[in-house]
Fold this sequence. Notes:
Layout: H1 2-31, H2 35-53
Helix pairs in contact: 1-2
Amino acid sequence: MASKHNNTALLVGAGLAVTSMIIFPALATRLGLGASLTGALRIALMKASNKVVHS
Length: 55
């Protein structure tokens, strides 16, 4: 059971990492968000990814 939880956490963490590195910047550019706001939101997503993986 713990292995299944670890796999799920890694999958969610990897999804958040991909979102913050690739998908979100492309979407932010398309919406016209500023670089500083985009960077702050990317950092927040990476922190969430780290929290999910290490919980």
